[in-house]
Automatic annotation (TrEMBL):
PANTHER family: PEROXISOMAL SARCOSINE OXIDASE. It comes from the Eukaryota. GO terms for molecular function: flavin adenine dinucleotide binding; L-pipecolate oxidase activity; proline dehydrogenase activity; sarcosine oxidase activity. This is Rhodanese domain-containing protein.
Length: 438
C-alpha cells in the first residue's frame, strides 16, 4: 500500500542515505518528514563525511564500475553535482586516473569491465599506453609516477575526465539546508535505543533520553552503526561494520599550488587512492580493502565502529602496518611528498554488504521499517540522487530488479568485486605510536 503524503515518516540518521532520502520525500510532497541523529552537530564528528578537525573529507566521484547499473547512476549523479546553484563548489572535476593490471586470460577484471562501461556510456576517456602518457596527465609542477615500475605493474591505465572528488561534509550540509527549506524537521542529540512496535509492526522509535517519536514509517539510515544499534533486526548476514585506514599529509602553500590540479589517483589493483590537496593544502590517501572489524563488550558478536567519539584518546589511530603500506603506495605516486610526516589518521567506518550492493528494502518481518544502508564504501558520490531510490521504494515504484538487488534478505551469490580478502579484527596492540607518523 502506498503511504499517503501526510503520514509521519521518521528517518534515523543524517548521513548520505538519510539526508538524501528526506530531501527526495519532501520534494515529492510528503509533509511530515523528520530526521533524527545521535550527534549534537551535523555532520557528525565521527561520520564518514568528516575528519579529525572538521575539515571536509574528500570522497571519490567516479563512474568507473564493473556493474553498468552503478556506472549509469554515477554519471547521472555527476550531472547533478555540476549544479552550482544547489551544490556550490562541493564537487571538483579533477578527473580520475585509473590504474590496474588487466588479466585478459581470465575474461577480464574489474578495471576492464569498468573501462568498457565508461566507454559505452560516453565518458570522456583517455587511454594511457605508457609511463610518459600517465605522467602527462599531471600538471608540470607535480612530479608523479616517475618510477618505471609503476607502469610495468599497471600495464593498463586511463583517465576519466568526467569525475573527481567532492567535499563530503559540505555536500551533506548543503542538502540539509534544502531539507529545512522544504519544511523537514531535524532533531539532534537523539540516539534511538529501540523501535516501538504494535502487533509486530513498528510504530515509532524511543530515544535514549526518553523521547518518543511516533511514525507511520521508520527509515533506518544509520550507516556503519546499523547492525549494533538495531541488533533485534538480525542484520549480521547482510551488514558488517568495517574500518578503512586513512592518512593525511600537510603540504606547504607552494606544494599545494604545484599539486592542486592533479587528478584523483585510483589504483584498482591495490585499492590505494589519493586526492589532490584541498584548500588547506592537505593531501588525503586511503586503501579500499576489506578493512577491520571491532567487537566490544556491549555488542560482542556485532562489529561496532571505534571512533574518536567512543575512544577520545586514540580513536583516530590505525595499525602501524597500514601506515607503512600507505606511505609505500604514496611514494609510488608522489615521490617528492612521500617522506612528509603524516599529520592525521583515522578509521573511516563503512557498512559493508557481502556483494557490495546497497541495502534499500523493507524489513522482511516488519513492513513499518525500511533500511537504507549498506554503503560498502561507495554511496556518497550518489548523494544527489540515492534518496530517489528509497523514495521510489516508499511509493512502490522501485524497479523490481532493483528491489531484488537491494533486498534485506537477498541471496548473495558472489562476493563484492572491488575488494578482496576478509576483514580482520582490529588489534589495539598493533596501533601506531606518535613517532611512527614521522
Amino acid at each position: 500500500m502506498i503511504l499517503p503524503k501526510d503520514k509521519k515518516i521518521v528517518v534515523v540518521g543524517a548521513g548520505c542515505f538519510g539526508v538524501s532520502t528526506a530531501y527526495h520525500l519532501l520534494q515529492r510532497g510528503y509533509t511530515d518528514v523528520s530526521i533524527l541523529d545521535r550527534s549534537t552537530t551535523l555532520p557528525a564528528s565521527d561520520a564518514a563525511s568528516n575528519d579529525f578537525n572538521r575539515t571536509d573529507i574528500e570522497l571519490v566521484v567516479r563512474s568507473s564500475y564493473s556493474d553498468k547499473f552503478y556506472t549509469e547512476l554515477a554519471r547521472e549523479a555527476i550531472s547533478s553535482w555540476k549544479d552550482r546553484e544547489k551544490w556550490g563548489d562541493t564537487y571538483h572535476e579533477s578527473g580520475v586516473l585509473v590504474l590496474g593490471l588487466t588479466n585478459a586470460s581470465s575474461g577480464g577484471t574489474y578495471i576492464d569491465d569498468a573501462y568498457r562501461n565508461d566507454i559505452a556510456l560516453g565518458a570522456k576517456i583517455d587511454s594511457l599506453g605508457n609511463g610518459d602518457a600517465i605522467r602527462a596527465v599531471f600538471p608540470s609542477g607535480a612530479r608523479a609516477c616517475t618510477n618505471p615500475s609503476v607502469f610495468n605493474e599497471h600495464r593498463f591505465a586511463y583517465i576519466n575526465r568526467d569525475g573527481g572528488w567532492a567535499n563530503a561534509a559540505q555536500g551533506v550540509s548543503r542538502l540539509l539546508h534544502h531539507v529545512i527549506a522544504l519544511k523537514g524537521e531535524i532533531f539532534l542529540g537523539k540516539t534511538v535505543k529501540k523501535l516501538l512496535r504494535q502487533n509486530g509492526k513498528t510504530t515509532g522509535v524511543e530515544c535514549s533520553d526518553g523521547t518518543v517519536f511516533e511514525a507511520d514509517l521508520v527509515i533506518i539510515a544509520t550507516g556503519s552503526w546499523t547492525p549494533s544499534a538495531f541488533p533485534d533486526l538480525d542484520l549480521g548476514r547482510i551488514c558488517l561494520a568495517t574500518g578503512q585506514c586513512v592518512a593525511m599529509v600537510q603540504l606547504s602553500e607552494k606544494e599545494g599550488d604545484d599539486y592542486r590540479d592533479c587528478p584523483v589517483v585510483l589504483n584498482f589493483n591495490s585499492g590505494f587512492y589519493v586526492f589532490p590537496p584541498n584548500e588547506k593544502n592537505i593531501v588525503k590517501m586511503a586503501i579500499h580493502c576489506a578493512g577491520y572489524t571491532h567487537f566490544n563488550e556491549v555488542n560482542g558478536s556485532i562489529s561496532t565502529p571505534r571512533t574518536v567519539a567512543s575512544d577520545p584518546v586514540d580513536g583516530l589511530r590505525i595499525p602501524k602496518s597500514n601506515l607503512q603500506d600507505l606511505r609505500a603506495h604514496f611514494r609510488n605516486v608522489y615521490p617528492d611528498l612521500a617522506e612528509k610526516p603524516f599529520v592525521a589518521t583515522r578509521l573511516c567506518w563503512y557498512n559493508d554488504t557481502p556483494d557490495e550492493d546497497w541495502v534499500i528494502g523493507k524489513h522482511p518481518m516488519d513492513d513499518g521499517v525500511i533500511l537504507a544502508t549498506g554503503d560498502s564504501g561507495h554511496a556518497y558520490k550518489f548523494l544527489p540522487i540515492i534518496g530517489r531510490l528509497v523514495a521510489d521504494l516508499v511509493e512502490d515504484k522501485l524497479n523490481q530488479k532493483l528491489v531484488a538487488k537491494f533486498a534485506v534478505d537477498r541471496e548473495v551469490a558472489n562476493a563484492g568485486p572491488s575488494r578482496s580478502g576478509q576483514a580482520a579484527p582490529l588489534d589495539l596492540k598493533e596501533l601506531y605510536n606518535p613517532e611512527d607518523l614521522l
